[in-house]
Structure to design on (608 residues):
């Protein structure tokens, strides 16, 4: 007969393996990538640490430059992720992620995947692979940590439920696995810390380990200093016997970090760690509310089941008296974190999906979820009748609906590229038009679902003057574009997805010549031409092949028989997943893209 403890251990081990395999499979299958943003070049630093034990990137690698135009002048500069300090180039964002990822990068190198190509150049595609693999591994491991934390309170089934809901119904899926953000290592370390804190209720925990984990949370992401401060007070209040060793360890780690900063930057802390970065000149109240309920960044919109968590904690707090201190400090920490990120000038987290800045406190929200279910199930077990009452049935039904919606919304962010493109959608970049996060007519999680994403507020087509050339670099073109166009570029505009449309009205029905100047996006070494179909008012009028990447004018005769007073031209490229040629390929596969410089309709001159 199997011993009960051994049986539980075997069950938990099998569950951990199952949860890891399920979550890592989903994480790796998800296609959306944010590696183009803050995380880009973080693995270059890891590579430098592996090969040269150096934080200085320009000592060993040829740093790629970007071309920008300022006041009419074209200059080359380092990407915003890199900064030159004291004559050397460094990765600007916190170094913790790169340091902790270095062993994984070394293993990827052994598998033949390196961020440095054989010719010595930076390999963006391999950085994408490395980041996605490490992020998937860490977050799958975090799912297992959530499971083990839940097992301290809940039976097996509920613990599975917590692990999967916490990963698939939160920004763990839609943010932390889409690139190796600083949030990724942050939540992984915090998940372990919370597990240790909960274990403190049952057995002693090594304070040196606890302080080391918290120190590295800070090195990974400085806003974790809030967690460090609150947990320090918790340790001092409830576990004073651990405090001296805990505090001494933290001081040693911080002194080492200050030494690193003084050596490389001549400052006590790197620039990214300066508290002055959290300085929003406006009131924090609007961002605070936005982080909770705005349609494109709100925690309670993207993961509404946390509303039920709050309700259950309030309703059944009687059963949680033993954990009152842990709950109080958790809620305090969550509120302080929300206050801090709401004081950041770009509180909407730039080009991201949903509540990226709140990702750091997801493990605290998971802990509260575990406690809320523990209280609810305890009430069920203590009830005279285990049968569901209408009130309990309503709670479970509403919770299930909220969880299903949370899964749907975060799966969209992980699998649909349109949710990334939303950040650049018309009329302006989200960083220049942050009011868009409040727009319920076009929330981010709906991106790509609408049949027609209009680029103008006009309900009808605009009249077109025959013979006039409409340049796509001019804002005037917006009134002629119906759907699926990228933002305006200096000389052209990209088509987006399977079909981009031009619409216009004519005052006179007549035969016309439709002229369009366009160029293809072609992946070097894979495609040398692109097949393009044009449809006019739903009827295919021509299919032609565009060779190379230079702009060419294409002319198509339109007989009067197919022309109407209100007309639509559809541009349909036929080769999928085409990317632009160049040293720095586009950050993500642009589906069926071509670039259009202008279009024009001319009358056909009749000969006598």
């Amino acid at each position: 007969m199997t011993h009960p403890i051994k049986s539980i251990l075997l069950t938990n081990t099998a569950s951990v393996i199952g949860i890891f395999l399920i979550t890592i499979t989903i994480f790796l299958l998800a296609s959306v990538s944010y590696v183009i943003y803050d995380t880009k070049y973080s693995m270059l630093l890891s590579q430098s640490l592996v090969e040269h034990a150096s934080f200085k990137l320009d000592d060993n690698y040829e740093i790629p430059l970007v071309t920008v135009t300022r006041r009419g002048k074209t200059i080359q500069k380092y990407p915003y992720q890199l900064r030159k300090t004291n004559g050397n180039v460094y990765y600007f964002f916190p170094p913790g992620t790169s340091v902790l990822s270095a062993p994984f990068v070394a293993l990827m190198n052994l598998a033949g995947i390196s961020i440095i190509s054989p010719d010595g150049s930076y390999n963006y595609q391999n950085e994408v692979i490395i980041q996605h693999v490490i992020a998937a591994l860490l977050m799958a491991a975090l799912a297992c940590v959530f499971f083990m934390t839940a097992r301290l309170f809940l039976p097996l089934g509920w613990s599975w439920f917590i692990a999967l809901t916490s990963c698939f119904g939160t920004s763990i899926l839609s943010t932390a696995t889409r690139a190796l953000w600083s949030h990724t290592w942050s939540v992984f370390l915090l998940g372990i810390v919370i597990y240790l804190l909960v274990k403190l209720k049952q057995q002693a925990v090594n304070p040196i380990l606890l302080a080391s984990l918290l120190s590295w949370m800070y090195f990974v992401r400085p806003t974790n200093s809030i967690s460090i401060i609150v947990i320090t007070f918790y340790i001092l209040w409830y576990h004073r016997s651990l405090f001296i060793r805990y505090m001494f360890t933290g001081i040693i780690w911080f002194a080492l970090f200050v030494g690193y900063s003084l050596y490389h930057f001549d400052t006590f802390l790197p620039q990214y760690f300066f508290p002055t970065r959290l300085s929003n000149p406006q009131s924090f109240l609007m961002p605070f509310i936005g982080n909770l309920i705005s349609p494109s960044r709100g925690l309670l919109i993207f993961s509404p089941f946390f509303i039920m968590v709050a309700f259950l904690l309030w309703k059944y707090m009687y059963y949680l008296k033993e954990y009152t201190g842990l709950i109080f400090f958790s809620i305090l920490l969550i509120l302080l974190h929300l206050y801090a990120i709401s004081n950041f000038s770009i509180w909407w987290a730039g080009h991201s999906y949903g509540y990226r800045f709140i990702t750091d406190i997801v493990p605290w929200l998971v802990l509260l979820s575990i406690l809320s279910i523990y209280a609810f199930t305890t009430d069920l077990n203590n009830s005279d009748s285990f049968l569901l009452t209408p009130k309990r049935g309503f709670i479970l039904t509403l919770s299930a609906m909220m969880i299903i919606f949370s899964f749907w919304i975060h799966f969209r962010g992980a699998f649909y590229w349109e949710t990334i493109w939303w950040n650049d959608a018309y009329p302006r970049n989200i960083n220049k038009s942050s009011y868009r996060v409040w727009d319920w007519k076009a929330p981010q999680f709906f991106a790509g679902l609408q049949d027609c994403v209009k680029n103008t507020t006009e309900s009808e087509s605009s009249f077109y003057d025959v013979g006039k050339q409409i340049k796509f670099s001019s804002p005037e073109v917006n009134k002629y574009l119906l759907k699926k166009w990228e933002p305006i570029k200096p000389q052209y505009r990209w088509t987006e997805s399977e079909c981009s449309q031009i619409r216009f009205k004519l005052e006179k029905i007549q035969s016309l010549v439709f002229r369009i100047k366009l160029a293809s996006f072609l992946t070097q070494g894979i495609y040398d031409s692109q097949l393009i179909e044009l449809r006019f008012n739903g009827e295919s009028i021509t299919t032609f092949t565009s060779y190379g990447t230079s702009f060419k004018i294409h002319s198509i005769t339109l007989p009067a028989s197919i022309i109407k007073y209100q007309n639509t031209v559809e541009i349909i490229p036929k080769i999928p997943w085409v990317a632009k040629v160049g040293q720095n390929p586009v950050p993500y596969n642009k589906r069926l893209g071509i670039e259009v410089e202008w279009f024009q309709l001319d009358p056909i001159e009749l000969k006598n």
The radius of gyration is 28 Å. The chain has 17 helices and 15 strands.
